[in-house]
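Internal ticket - ligand job 725, beta-D-glucopyranuronic acid:
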Amino acid sequence: MKLSVVMIRTLLFFLILCSIIRSKAEDGYRLWLRYERITNVSLLKNYTRQLTSVHIGKLSPTIQVAVEELQLAIKSMLVKELALTAQVQSGTLLLGTPASTPVIQAMNISEKLRNTGPEGYLIMSTAWNGKKVIVITANTDKGVLYGVFHFIRLIQTQQDISDLNISSAPKIKLRLLNHWDNLDRTVERGYAGFSIWDWHKLPDFIDPRYKDYARANASIGINGTVLTNVNANAWVLTPHYLEKVAALANVFRPYGIRVYLTARFSAPTEIGGLPTADPLNPDVQQWWNKKVREIYNLIPDFGGFLVKANSEGQPGPQNFGRTHAEGANMLARALAPFNGVVMWRAFVYDDKIPDDRAKQAFNEFKPLDGAFLPNVLVQVKNGPIDFQPREPFHPLFGAMPATPLMMEFQITQEYTGFSTHLVYLANQFKECLSSDTYARGEGSTVARVIDGSLHNYPITGMAGVANIGTDRNWTGHHFGQANWYAFGRLAWNHELTAMSVAEEWIRMTFTNELHVVNTIKKLMDSSWETTVNYMTPLGLHHIMGWNHHYGPAPWIQDKHRADWTSVYYHRADEKGLGFDRTPSGSNAVSQYTQRVSEKFGSRLNCPEKFLLWFHHVGWTEQLSSGKTLWEELCLAYYRGAAEVKQMLETWSTLQGKIDDDRYEHVRTMLSIQHKEAIWWRNACVLYFQTFSKMEIPAHLEKPDKPLSYYMQLEFPYAPGIKPKW
Ligand code: BDP
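stdout (C-alpha cells):
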C-alpha cells in the first residue's frame, strides 16, 4: 500500500514534469509573435521602468485588439500587466488617435501626423506635464494598431525605447495575400496541409486560428486577403457561402483586414441561370450588380474581386469576343459605388497563339493601357513566365503608365522546393523590385512602378500567393514563415533590405543571441541563390516535373500543350542551350525599353544569371570566367548541391542554441533538401549531357545513377497539384 502511494506520487510528479516540458514544446504555431520572456535582468528592469501604464481614449474594436495585443506581449515579455490609467504618469504609454484621445489631441501633433496617411503612425518619446511618456498615435485606429505592433517588435528585438521618434507609412495601399484555396479545402500549390478556411463549419464555428491569422497579418501590415483560388469556383458567390465569408470578415475587421473573393467569369451562367456571361449583355451586368449589392449587404467593407480570365482554361470575356478591359470594367462598374476594386490578372497565355509564351501578356495588355476604369488594377506576376526560381522582371512594368499595375509574388514555394527547402524569398522579391525598367530614365525601378510614384497611379497594390495551411506551424517549413513575414514587410516598405527583414524575423522567431542571429541570417541570405543553382542556373526555367512541378524533369516533351513542356523552354540541341529571345529568335527583348532590351539582347552584356533566358548559347562558348557554357552549367549545379550540404553543416552548429523541436525539424528538412538538390543536379547534368556530349569536369563526383533512373520516377500524389476542372 505504502509503496503504491509512493509510486503514484512519482508517477504524478513525472506526469507534471512531462506536461511542463511539453508546454515548452516549440511547434511554430506562434510564428513571430512568440513574446518570449526577457531573461536579461538589466534589460528587463530597463523596460519595466520605462513602461508603467497605458492610457487610451475612446474604445473601438480596433483599439480593443491593439490593447489586448499590447497586454499579451508585455505580460509575457516583461511579466507584468500595464495598468490602465486615466491620469498620465511617468512611463505611461498613450495610445490612440487625436480624435479619440484628448491628451493626444492636446499634444498638437497634427503637423507630424500629416505625412502618415490613413494607415501610418507615429511612435514618440515625449514629456507631458513633466512626465516622460511614449505616444503611439495615428490618423486612424488602424494606424494605431500598426504602431502598437511596431512598438511590440522593438521590445521583441530588444531595441532601445528611451528616445523614440518613429514615423512610418506604407508605400503601397493594397497589401494582400492571395489564397489559392478551394472550397473542398485542398490548396492549389499548397504544401502546408489543407486550407485553414473550414467552410463546412462556418459561419457558426469560428476556429481560433482565424484570429491568430489576422494578428499575424496585421503585425506585418497586410490589409487584405483573397480567400479563394484564382482557378475560381462560382459557388463561393452563392448566399450559402457568402454568409461564411461574412463570418470571416467579421473576425478580420478589427485587424484592418478586408476580404476579397475570386470571381469566376462564367458565374452568371453557372449559378445565375443566365444563358451567357457576355460582359456587354445587360442581363449579365445586372446580375453582377445585384450580386455585388448582396455581398456588400453582408460585408460592408468587402474589398473586391480578383479575376483570372482566359488563361489556363478559365472562362473570360474573350469567350464572347470581348477584351480583358471590357470584362474588368463590367465588374468594376458593379463595385465602384461601394469603393470595391477589381484585380485583373495579366497572367494570360495560350498555346494556340504561336508566339513565345513570355511575350503574350504584354501583347495582350499593353494595347489596353488606359482602357480600364479607375478601380481596376492589373495584377502582374514578377516575371514574364511563371514564378520561376529566377526570372527577369516582367516587361509590362513600366509599359502601362495609365493603368495601375500591381505586383504578384509567389510566397508558396511551388517552384522553389515546396515546403521542404529552405529558401528565403525576400532576396528574390528585392531583385525584382530593384530592377530598373528605364521607363522614365534611370531609376525607374519596378518598385517605383508599383508604389505608384513613377506614373502617379491612384491605387497601388502588392499581392503574395500564400503559403499558409493547417500545418501546426502554418507554412510546413519553419522558414516558410519568413517568406510570409518578408512579403508583408516589403509590401509596407519595399526599401527595407532583405537582411534587415530577416534579422527582425530571426530575433522574434528564434532568439536575440547575436551569434545565432548572424548564423541564421547568413544561411537565409544565400539560400535563394543556392536553390537557383541546383534547379535552374544561368537563366534556365520551367524544367520541373510535369503538372505537380516536383523535382527535375527537363526531358518533358510531347504533351498536349507545347508550352507545358520543358523542351519548349530550354531548347537544348547539339549546338547549345537556351531560348533565343533576341531579334534573331522570338524577340521578346523588344518588349523592354531600349536600354534594357539592348542589355538583355546582347550576348556579351546580358547578365549571366539570365543568359539562357534570352540566348541560345553554344556548349563550348566561353562565359565571362573563361570556362565553357557546359563547364559553368555543371559547376553551378554542383555548387548548388554543395551549398545545401554547407547549410546543413551550419545549421548543425546551432544545436542546443535554439529549441530542440524546431532545430530538429529544420535539420530534417535540410537533409531532404540536400537529397533533392543532388537529385536535381544529377538529373539535369545527365540530361543536358545527352546534347553537349561533353564530360562532366573530372574533379566533380559522377552521378551514381543513370539518366533513365531519374526519368522513370513518378509522383502521382505529390502535394498541391492543380485539380482537373
Ligand atoms: C501556375 C500554377 C497554377 C496556377 C497558375 C496561376 O502552376 O497552379 O493556377 O500559376 O497563377 O504557376 O494562375
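Auto-summary: The mean pLDDT is 96. The pocket of beta-D-glucopyranuronic acid is lined by residues 188-189, 230-231, 308, 312, 347, 386-387, 414, 722 (CB under 6 Å).
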